[in-house]
């Protein structure tokens, strides 16, 4: 038991260290993860202390911890902040059950310390109320989270997997509490109580260790992706963008000036193609995918890459990369304004990657081209430039 607790606590500290090491680049959602990891570490540290100082006390079999009541709520807050919809009140509501239970917890702990490990008579009431709270919170929140994960932007692919894993594990715990509650109502399980409680604690401690490991994996993978993979991928895309920019500037006018006539002659519904493309961009935000190419977009629209390229050139007077990256710039500006209105720290590079850019240089290039200033200047002066009409 102590071995699993130590492993879990160590993983929680390691994950917390990874988050704090890159604190200047962390968003509010990362702060939520820090709260979750700190809670897990405190939970396991208290459990370890109880095992060491009162190894034979009945408190191990009859004392629900208060800290774990916050886990599902904090995970819910995490995805809310990933979508930029989270508010400080969400964190308070997530912590409220845990804060309320902590009053009874420390009251009981003080009694146990003063009475050499003996349990107080009111511990049954505490366990009953906290047990119902566990069952409700560990079923309701995970179900809400699993139903909400599909709305998390594509950029947060690893985070989405981690959230699904954690929510599924929490749901398993909630269902276990529900089954045990029903079982105790239907029959006398006092003979098996100690064994059930032991295995339940082992499972919960193991689940916490798995969640901490998954957080470490996500944060380390994100770091490697941003600082290694993105740099390798940036060079060819920068060259592509520069080449297309030279073509755009050298043409000086639409490549196909007689769009309507060409459409009638070729029988191609360019207007319909453009409508599908703009629906994918505005409603489904396919531009958030960093790997989006002309071929991929053409497949989604169900047209040839040639006809898609013609559509963008004739009706938007833009190349593919120019068209897509202007949507990405608009997304970054929306995020900037949102964060600034909330008074939160703005990480420009993280927003650029979230919007689908491959590199800092290409982002800065298109931002200045679209907005007429650098991202830093935009945030500092907040000039009222018109957003791109895409």
UniProtKB/TrEMBL annotation:
Q: Which GO terms describe its molecular function?
A: DNA-binding transcription factor activity; sequence-specific DNA binding
Domain HTH araC/xylS-type: residue ranges: 271-381
InterPro entries (UniProt xref): Homeodomain-like_sf, HTH_AraC
Q: Which residues cross the membrane?
A: 32-53, 59-79, 91-113, 125-141, 162-183, 203-226
Keywords for this entry?
A: DNA-binding, Membrane, Transcription, Transcription regulation, Transmembrane, Transmembrane helix
**Protein's name according to its UniProt entry:** AraC-like DNA-binding protein
Q: What lineage does UniProt assign to this protein's organism?
A: Bacteria, Pseudomonadati, Bacteroidota, Sphingobacteriia, Sphingobacteriales
């Amino acid at each position: 038991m102590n071995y699993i607790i130590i492993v879990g606590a160590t993983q929680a500290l390691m994950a917390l260290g990874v988050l704090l090491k890159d604190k200047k680049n962390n968003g509010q959602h990362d702060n939520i993860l820090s709260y979750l990891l700190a809670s897990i570490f405190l939970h396991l540290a208290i459990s370890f202390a109880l095992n060491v100082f009162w190894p034979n006390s009945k408190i191990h079999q009859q004392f629900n911890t208060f800290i774990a009541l916050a886990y599902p709520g904090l995970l819910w807050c995490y995805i809310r902040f990933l979508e930029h919809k989270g508010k400080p009140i969400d964190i308070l509501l997530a912590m409220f059950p845990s804060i309320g239970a902590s009053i009874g917890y420390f009251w009981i702990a003080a009694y146990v310390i003063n009475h050499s490990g003996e349990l107080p008579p009111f511990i049954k009431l505490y366990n009953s109320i906290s047990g119902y709270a566990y069952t409700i919170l560990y079923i309701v929140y995970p179900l809400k989270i699993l139903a909400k994960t599909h709305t998390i932007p594509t950029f947060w692919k690893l985070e989405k997997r981690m959230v699904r894993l954690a929510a599924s594990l929490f749901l398993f715990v909630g269902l276990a509490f529900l089954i045990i509650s029903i079982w105790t109502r239907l029959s006398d399980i006092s003979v098996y109580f100690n064994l059930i409680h032991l295995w339940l604690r082992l499972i919960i401690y193991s689940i916490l260790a798995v969640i901490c490991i998954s957080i470490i994996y996500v944060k380390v993978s994100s770091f490697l992706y941003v600082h290694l993979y993105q740099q390798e991928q940036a060079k060819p895309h920068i060259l592509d963008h520069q080449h297309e920019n030279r073509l755009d500037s050298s043409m000086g006018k639409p490549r196909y000036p007689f769009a309507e006539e060409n459409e009638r002659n070729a029988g191609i519904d360019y207007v319909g193609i453009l409508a599908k493309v703009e629906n994918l961009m505005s409603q489904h935000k396919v531009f958030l995918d960093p790997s989006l190419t002309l071929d991929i977009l053409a497949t989604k629209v169900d047209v040839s890459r040639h006809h898609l390229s013609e559509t963008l050139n004739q009706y938007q007077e833009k190349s593919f990369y120019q068209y897509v990256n202007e949507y990405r710039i608009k997304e970054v500006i929306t995020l900037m304004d949102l964060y600034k209105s909330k008074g939160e720290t703005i990480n420009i590079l993280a927003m650029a990657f979230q919007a689908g850019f491959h590199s800092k240089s290409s982002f800065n290039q298109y931002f200045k081209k679209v907005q007429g200033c650098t991202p830093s200047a935009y945030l500092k002066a907040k000039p009222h430039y018109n957003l791109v009409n895409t």
